Amino acid sequence: MNRSTIDLWVGVFVAAGFGALLFLALKVGNLASFTTNEIYEVKANFANIGGLKVRAPIKSAGVVVGRVGAISFDDQSYEAIVTMNLDSEYKFPRDTVAKILTSGLLGEQYIGLEAGGDSKMLANGDRLQLTQSAVVLENLISQFMFNKAAEGKDSSK
Amino acid sequence: MPISSFRETDLADGALRRFFERLGSQVTARVWRLGFASRFLGYMVLHSGTALRRFPLTIREIYFAGVLSLIIILVSGLFVGMVLGLQGFNTLERYGSSEALGVLVALSLVRELGPVVAGLLFASRAGSAITAEIGLMKATEQISAMEMMAVDPIARVVAPRFWGGVISMPLLAALFSAMGIFGGYLVGVKLIGVDEGAFWSQMQAAVDVREDIVNGVIKSFVFGIAVSWIAVFEGYDAPPTAEGVSGATTRTVVTSSLAILALDFILTALMFTGGNGR
Predict the structure, then answer these.
(1) Is the pTM of this model over 0.95?
(2) Residues B158-184 as b or e (16 or more Cβ within 10 Å = b)
(3) Strands A57-60 and A63-74: what pairing?
(4) Which of A45, A133, B63, B264 is deepest in the core (most CB within 10 A)?
(5) ipTM of this predicted complex?
């Protein structure tokens, strides 16, 4: 096999290899979706964030409008501070409610935003006042058990 | 009675002593060989000017190590992905989350199976060929002939093969992963009927470019260096006999497979444990 045929095949091989890397980066890893958009930061305090993770989606009406940028702990109020990176395309009123929700029964946790009625819009660095913490399954079960136990006591009287 | 017992202990003493002598000489030989291999790597990297200046030499080796391994890599990748699709579906189905099939296939391929299986295949397909070729060149005294002509055989023969392997390996691993994901897609979406949108979107949401894909490429690059290094060293160090070359070829496959698996453990421990909980 002469030199130019080898060059051709090596060229095809290298191009295919970089094509595969590009496929992995764009189609599998979705590189394009979160680097280009402009964002603004909004903070919110939660009493309990459950299993929320950095880069978890922020959804409003089911549409992804941003991602969780950072999670930290405030040792003054003993609450979690979640920094949300919202897409600048989407504006929300200042009395928007942030809830930590779970997709499916045991799926990953995300932040759901419900728009309020304020005429002023959220700007970079604002803080959401109304939040709802994650539902912790253990608390839910213990509440249920206590209610059941209380009911049992009532009916035995 | 006392004489025979004295002889028995003497015999046991001698056996024990021989055992420790053998153990010691084996360990020293291993350490000596590792030192020689490291010196060899350093010398080769310093003298790879020729391989990089006369790049057609390296291109020829990329052809032999990379292009000729394409078929086995692509076909194995396809089948590994298809098996992952079938097995993953069976398990995920039990928890009612068969849409997460894309995540399972993509993460296991990009993080682990792509670099590791491609590395093992590369070691047995290309690494063994490199060792056998260099070993035979040595056995037929082509290496000595080059030295006679004042051509440095490490710069002219060994370094192009090393760099050819190092360049080929990450590309082969990427092709393996891409082909595997395609295989998982074929089985999961086309055959079993997992929802196509959920398959891709869950995959895209879960796979991180920096955390998963770049780390996978780094892994395959490290494996490429390890396999190529072991292959050229075993070939260069092979005793110049038919037996020696065959032994060196076997050692290349065994040592590089072990090196890949051990390095994979170390790299995984470094890459994927710290960032997971955050």
Answers:
(1) no
(2) bbbbbbbbbbbbbbbbbbbbbbbbbbb
(3) antiparallel
(4) B63
(5) 0.76
